[in-house]
Amino acid sequence: MPEWIISDGLTDYADALAFMETRVDAIARGEADECIWLLEHPPLYTAGTSAKPADLIDPHRFPVHQARRGGQYTYHGPGQRVVYVMLDLGKRGRDVRRFVQDLEAWVIATLETFNVRGEIRQGRVGVWVQRPDKPLQPDGTLAEDKIAALGIRLRKWVSFHGLSINVDPDLRHFDGIVPCGISAHGVTSLVDLGLPVTMDDLDVALRRTFDAVMHGGVPPSQPRVKFADQR
């Protein structure tokens, strides 16, 4: 089982990258356990390997970091749970497509514990929720907002970077970019959907659903467990 680390406060992005680089190398050498790291960053934008300069609308609003992960521009900041996954795909079948699908299923299962239906859309990265409370789209379909982003990188079959789920970030901060290159849809959060979910609530759900999705472990219906900060 991976080591779980939950960090309080805001973690500097450069420090997070340095930690991941070191840990991934150690995992690849067989000298460290796999790791799931839950944290929050100060407000910043990250550019994935497919980021388009035109999608950085306000380059001076927050620091911009080259992430070297897959994907385009993403915002990270307080109120958003960032989940860095350092997992050995060499021991998990070496199937990158399946791994990404498992990560998506993990997010969807986590959202389900709060009665939120997350969905995947062809051609759109991340996890989406329908918004019947908003005006219909021009084609007459329901409006949809993004609630979770995903972008990974592999080194020697060990993953890093990962995913982010919006709990209660300042959604106006997404205005400085075109999130993941998609301008036709909005961004939401658990609190924006009217749910009084805390970061601790989400962390417990992430731990429990990870076991269920990735290892066939404790199902989401089991009682919640509190976790101490391990860093």
How does this model look, in words?
Strand 1, helix 1 (13-28) and strand 2 form a beta-alpha-beta unit. The two termini are 17 Å apart. Residues 216-231 have low confidence and may be disordered. Helix 2 packs across helix 3 (199-215). The chain is globular and about 55 Å long. The relative contact order is 0.19. It is built from three helices and eleven strands; from the N terminus they run βαβββββαβββββα. The strands form two sheets. Strands 1, 2, 6, 7, 8, 9, 10 and 11 form an eight-stranded mixed beta sheet that branches. It has a three-stranded mixed beta sheet with strand order 4-3-5, with no helix packed on it. With 231 residues, the chain is an alpha/beta fold.
Structural key phrases:
231 residues, eight-stranded mixed beta sheet
Q: What are the SSEs and their pairings?
A:
Elements: E1 3-6, H1 13-28, E2 35-39, E3 44-47, E4 64-66, E5 73-76, E6 80-86, H2 96-112, E7 119-121, E8 124-131, E9 143-155, E10 158-166, E11 186-187, H3 199-215
Parallel strand pairs: 1-2, 3-4, 9-11
Antiparallel strand pairs: 2-6, 3-5, 6-10, 7-8, 8-9, 9-10
Average predicted confidence as pLDDT:
90
Radius of gyration: 17 Å
Helix content: 10-25%
Q: What oligomeric arrangement do these chains adopt?
A: single chain
Order of helices and strands: EHEEEEEHEEEEEH
Principal-axis shape equals: globular
Which stretches are low in confidence, meaning pLDDT under 50 for 5 or more residues running?
216-231
Structure annotation, total helices: 3
Total count of strands: 11
N/C terminus separation: 17 Å
Proportion of residues in β-strands = 25-35%
Largest sheet: 8 strands, mixed
Look at the helices and sheets and give the structural class. Answer: alpha/beta
